[in-house]
């Protein structure tokens, strides 16, 4: 985890491999669609890579990653439910 926080892509790739199926499963549970679940999974890991340097040491990585995943799924649901305004939300 610490290596990932210092920009080690190889270390982060290990984390992706470790959590990818769990993140996809959570995404599919929330979205009920393979394509959307794949997109949310990818978005979650991109966001995690961008934010991991600021992750505090006392935060459990998996819990943090699942919160990111939930947020990505929520954004996709917002777009699905309201395509004209959902895409402009942050």
How many β-strands, per DSSP?
Answer: 0
Order of helices and strands: HHHH
- Count of the separate structural domains: 1
| CATH fold group | Rna Polymerase Sigma Factor, Chain: A
Strand content: under 5%
CATH architecture: Orthogonal Bundle
* Rg value: 14 Å
What is the typical, i.e. mean, pLDDT?
Answer: 88
User: What structural class do the secondary elements suggest?
Assistant: mainly alpha
Helix content: over 70%
The coarse silhouette is elongated
The CATH homologous superfamily is called RNA polymerase sigma factor, region 2, helix turn helix motif
- Low-pLDDT runs of 5+ residues are none
Provide a descriptive summary of the structure in words.
This protein is mostly helical and 90 residues long. It has a single domain (2-88), classed as Orthogonal Bundle (Rna Polymerase Sigma Factor, Chain: A). Helix content is 73%, strand content 0%. It contains four helices and no strands. Helix 2 (9-31) crosses helix 4. The longest helix has 23 residues, at 9-31. It is elongated, with a radius of gyration of 14 Å. The two termini are 27 Å apart. The mean pLDDT is 88.
Short description:
With 90 residues, this protein is an all-alpha fold. The chain has a single domain (2-88), classed as Orthogonal Bundle (Rna Polymerase Sigma Factor, Chain: A), CATH 1.10.1740.10. It contains four helices and no strands.
């Amino acid at each position: 985890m610490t290596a990932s926080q210092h920009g080690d892509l190889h270390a982060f790739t290990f984390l992706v491999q470790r959590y990818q199926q769990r993140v996809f499963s959570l995404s599919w549970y929330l979205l009920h669609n393979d394509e959307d679940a794949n997109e949310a999974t990818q978005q979650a890991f991109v966001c995690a890579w961008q934010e991991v340097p600021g992750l505090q040491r006392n935060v459990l990585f998996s819990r943090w990653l699942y919160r990111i995943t939930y947020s990505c799924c929520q954004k996709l649901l917002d777009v699905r439910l309201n395509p004209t305004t959902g895409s402009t939300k942050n």
